[in-house]
């Protein structure tokens, strides 16, 4: 029990120190300027992917919304894969309260099965 508590406390402290926010995509899309240039973590299913020579992008859906993830040199997961993504939010254009072009510049991803 003590080991689990210590592990949970260590994980929480490391996330707080890195400034990484674990979010739902809907939260990012609802207020992209709040999350602009912040390091975030999201998880979802790849709905589209495109790339060449390890660079490209893919779109993920977590049930609350969809967002494009831009990657370079890390490869692109295939459609249907469940992924966990870390990166910085890049805001696009906001017109009449709706955001267009919000994306995550990937710093890393893990494929989960």
Quick synopsis:
24% of the residues lie in helices and 48% in strands.
Explain what the structure shows.
- The protein is of the alpha+beta class and 113 residues long.
- The protein has helices at 2-18, 25-30, 32-35, and strands spanning 21-22, 39-52, 55-61, 66-71, 82-90, 93-95, 98-100, 103-112.
- The chain has one domain: OB fold (Dihydrolipoamide Acetyltransferase, E2P) (Beta Barrel), CATH 2.40.50.
- It is built from three helices and eight strands.
- A hairpin with a 2-residue loop joins strand 2 and strand 3 (55-61).
- It is globular, with a radius of gyration of 15 Å.
- Residues 11-18 have low confidence and may be disordered.
């Amino acid at each position: 029990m003590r080991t689990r508590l210590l592990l949970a406390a260590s994980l929480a402290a490391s996330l707080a120190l890195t400034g990484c926010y674990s979010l739902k995509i809907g939260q990012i899309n609802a207020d992209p300027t709040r999350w602009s240039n912040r390091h975030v973590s999201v998880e979802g299913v790849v709905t589209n992917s495109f790339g060449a020579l390890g660079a490209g992008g893919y779109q993920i859906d977590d049930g609350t919304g969809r967002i494009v993830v831009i990657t370079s040199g890390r490869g692109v997961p295939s459609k249907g894969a469940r992924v966990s993504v870390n990166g910085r939010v890049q805001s696009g254009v906001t017109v009449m309260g709706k955001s267009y072009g919000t994306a995550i510049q990937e710093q890393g991803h893990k494929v989960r099965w």
